[in-house]
């Protein structure tokens, strides 16, 4: 493990412990938008991660604290992905940390504190869960696949389009889940638990680590049109590989 990966794993797991200590306790919840909320735990977890990553001297962009503008090499951090779940006591949330160089993730860590799972990847060295090397699923038929997605906090026409896509996939696949942590959704595609994932409107901190996990596990990540994924792309389609074409056609 390189020092950067080791530092990201340690920071994510320590933040996970902080998050779990506050899980199920009284929280101050602040509205960011119609359905978008943030708790003091989001901010506390980000402060902790920033302190742990600081000795490496690489700028940090965090969902809550911003930063990293214009840097070629930076950490991109979502200190708590799945805040709505966390605040409601639904145990699906994660910590996501990626090291990004010239727009591409080179280190990615997604830590799930409630299941005590840490998914990690380094470019060129595979994706791992503990001692197990991760491999995306071999499934080739959409009808036999288990997919996941999420919905942006934005309502209006974007939500209507997303609901229509959800409906199409529900007809075409074995089942579709909507767990509420995009970083976990992507880690599960890498682990072969989900065969594919799509969502519109995600931000760099939601996807940077999971993107690398999927690619290093042998899967594919693009936008809905099949163009190479970039941080800042409006939509993301991640799959095991064989199902990419069928998923693209369903999204179109
Ligand atoms: C959210 C989660 C959710 C996704 C939303 C994200 P947050 O992140 O990843 O699964 O559907 O679009 O904003 O706000 O809990 O960090
Ligand atoms: Ca997030
Ligand atoms: Ca978050």
Sequence of secondary-structure elements: HEEHEEHEEEEEEHEHEHEEH
Shape: globular
**Beta strand %:** 25-35%
Count up the helices: 7
Helix content: 25-40%
Q: Roughly how many Å apart are the termini?
A: 40 Å
Uncertain segments of ≥5 residues (pLDDT<50)? none
Assembly state: single chain
What is the number of beta strands? Answer: 14
Report the C-alpha radius of gyration, rounded.
17 Å
User: Which structural class matches the secondary elements?
Assistant: alpha+beta
Question: What is the strand arrangement across the widest sheet?
Answer: 3-4-5-6-7-8-9
Question: Mean pLDDT score, rounded?
Answer: 95
> What is the makeup of the main sheet?
7 strands, mixed
Explain what the structure shows.
With 252 residues, the protein is an alpha+beta fold. The protein is 34% helix and 26% strand. The chain has seven helices and 14 strands. It has helices spanning 3-22, 40-53, 83-88, 157-172, 182-190, 204-216, 244-251, and strands at residues 29-31, 37-39, 60-62, 73-81, 94-101, 104-112, 117-122, 127-129, 132-133, 146-149, 175-177, 196-200, 220-222, 235-239. The strands form three sheets. It has a seven-stranded mixed sheet with strand order 3-4-5-6-7-8-9, sandwiched between helices. A hairpin with a 4-residue loop joins β6 (104-112) and β7. The chain starts with a helix and ends with a helix. It binds D-MYO-inositol-1-phosphate and calcium ion (2 copies). The site of D-MYO-inositol-1-phosphate has 13 residues, from β4.
């Amino acid at each position: 493990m390189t020092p950067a990966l080791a530092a990201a794993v340690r920071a994510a797991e320590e933040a996970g412990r902080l998050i779990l200590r506050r899980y199920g306790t009284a929280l101050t919840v602040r509205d960011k938008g119609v359905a978008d909320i943030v708790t003091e735990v989001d901010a506390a977890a980000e402060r902790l991660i920033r302190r742990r990553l600081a000795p490496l001297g690489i700028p940090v962009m965090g969902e809550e604290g911003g930063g990293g503008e214009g840097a070629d090499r930076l950490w991109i951090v979502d200190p708590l992905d799945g805040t709505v779940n966390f605040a409601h006591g639904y145990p699906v949330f994660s910590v996501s940390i990626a090291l990004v160089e010239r727009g591409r993730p080179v280190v990615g860590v997604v830590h799930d504190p409630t299941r005590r799972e840490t998914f990690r990847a380094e470019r060129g060295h595979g994706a791992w869960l503990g001692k197990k090397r991760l491999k995306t699923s071999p499934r080739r038929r959409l009808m036999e696949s288990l997919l996941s997605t999420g919905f942006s906090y934005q309502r209006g026409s974007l939500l209507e389009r997303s609901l229509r896509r959800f409906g199409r996939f529900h007809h075409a696949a074995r089942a579709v889940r909507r767990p509420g942590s995009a970083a976990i959704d992507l880690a599960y595609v890498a682990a072969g638990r989900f065969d594919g994932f799509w969502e519109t409107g995600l931000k760099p901190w939601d996807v940077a680590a999971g993107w690398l996990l999927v690619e290093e596990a042998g899967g594919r990540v693009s936008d809905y049109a099949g163009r190479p994924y970039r941080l800042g792309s409006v939509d993301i389609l991640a799959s095991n590989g064989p199902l990419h074409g069928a998923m693209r056609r369903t999204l179109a």
